[in-house]
Fold this protein.
Amino acid sequence: MAGALGLSEQGTIVIAKTLSSGTNIPGLFSALAAQSPQFAEKVYNPATGHPDPRLMIILNKKMVRGKDLARTVLRDGDVILLTPIIAGG
């Protein structure tokens, strides 16, 4: 994930971002994609408006998917976690 944000750090990365009122998750991702071509390439495609399907998006400890991404308005203090989906058996 660090590489997708253009960072060389490993582990947990914390990014604090000031957003306009009414911004939803795709709005946040579009802002991050505009600031980082690597984010646009590996995490979120602004042309389609969809995140990489191999990612799990967690907002305040609850998974958010599909149409809920656009319906969810972000608020001050919200925490979003991006993590790869891990499958196995």
The longest strand covers residues 55-59. The mean pLDDT is 85. The first helix runs from residue 25 to 35. The domain at 3-84 is CATH 3.10.20.30 (Ubiquitin-like (UB roll)).
